Model the fold of this input.
Amino acid sequence: MQELVRRRFDALDALGVFSAVERITSVDNEWADALSRGEERRQDVLRMVLALGLSPHRLTPAPAWRDLRGLPRLDA
Done:
C-alpha cells in the first residue's frame, strides 16, 4: 500500500495538485456511491451538482495510474 500511496503522491505532485486524505463515512459519501450505480443514478448526481452551481468534470485515469506491475504480490 505504501508503494501505491507513493505513486499517487508523485503523480499528483507532478500535476501541481495538493491532496489531503480523509475518511468519509458511507452516509456522507452518497454521490460517489450513486456514481458507481448506473447511468440513472449518475444523472441524478449531475442534476444535484448543477443545481448547486458546481461545475462537474469527468476525470479519466491515466493507464500508468492503474499499472500494478512491480508491486509485491501477496500470494507469492
The radius of gyration is 16 Å. The first helix runs from residue 2 to 14. The chain has one domain: 2-55.
